[in-house]
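During data preparation, a discrete fold description was generated, and the record follows.
___
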Amino acid sequence: MQKKLGPGEVFAILLGAIIGWGSFMLPGSQFLYNSGVINTSIGLFCGTMAIIVIERSYWYMLQQDIDEGGEFSYILIFMGRKNAFIVGWFLFLAYLSLVPLNATAFPLVIDKLFPGILNVGYLYTIAGDPIYLGEALVSVLIILFFMALNLKGIKQSGKAQFIIVAALVICVLAVFVAMLFQADLETFRENYIDNNSFNLGQVLQVVAITPFLFIGFDAVPQLVKDMGISRRKASLMAVTSLLIGMGCYILLNFTTALAYGPEEAKSLDWALGSGVLEHLGLIGFLMLVIALGSAVSGGINGFMICSTKLICSMGRQNILPRQVGRITERGILRNAILAVSVISIFACFFGREVVTWIVDMCSFGAAVTYFYVCLNTFRIARSRPDRILGFIGAMLAFLFMLLLIVPSSPAALSRPALIFLSVWIIVGAYFFIRMSLADKRKQGRS
């Protein structure tokens, strides 16, 4: 069996999953234009506090005798197979979609260093996004690399994650400090401080996507059998990783705002990268590329670990095909790793636009999972504080869901994202019926 993960490796998997592609791209594409600096920071803070309240129910969950599969196993034990399927199906969506999302960000990094070098072997265009063989192959190769790493065992994967995340945090801090000295602070004040005030709609746009931004803190339940640390310490690490993740999102948003106004940032493909290159030169830009490469690598690795743990547990329960639940003599989830890798590689050939639509559903999938965990904690907890926090957490998760699916909401999902969500629910209904019929046949024989 594999050696246990140490505290540094557990923390790196948590933080690496939280800080991903979005922290580097969203400041230019969404945050500054829609919510500015002040309201984005307020939204990130409020969203983080809501997730920390939800994490309290995760802490209670960790006190139970759960297996790999985390939230899925928890709901399976206390609420039965049907509810466990719903949790597992939506959580699988949230985890799995983030693997190809991060993988397809690698060509963007390379393109910034060597413009146009990967635009070879034109294949087709989907949703206005041209797909090139060169870009797709880079994404595929990075997935294959982390597939091979995970096939060696989670201990090796955890060591690599620690190095990746250390480079990420150091480079983000260095770039932010350097930008403070090089940027025009007076222009920053005019763009984002003067005549800018609290706006609830702008804040809610940020709050609504925090389940997507911070999904990854819940990696702890997936690692419960692999940790060489106490569950209490792991829970504290989850909270700490949320706070550091919030700090990185805010710092990267400030860094972009120091370079450009909201309209200019929105017009650029990668405002943060362009701003750093313009103000700090090639050395600063290379540090940012190292940070982005580390974030993307940490996201791929972290979510590959989480998704394989989840579907392996679902396979062992005959909710997914039993083959994905097989474990080698060395304790490696070989079939689950291969399944996640193949699906992720397939998704890379749909292009970033389609992958982004799918990822937009992540917040909804994560919110469904959080709702179930908090609701179940409210149901079974004995202490009054745990029950109260479980109830509050369930209401917050439900609010997240409403913000995403109510058409009049400032954070409502786009039409393509809603279509993909509907397709995912229909496919899930097929597996749900298949599972229910199999359970009935099994009960009939007994």
Notes: The domain at 7-445 is CATH 1.20.1740.10 (Amino acid/polyamine transporter I). The first strand starts at residue 122 and ends at 126. DSSP finds 19 helices and two strands in the chain.
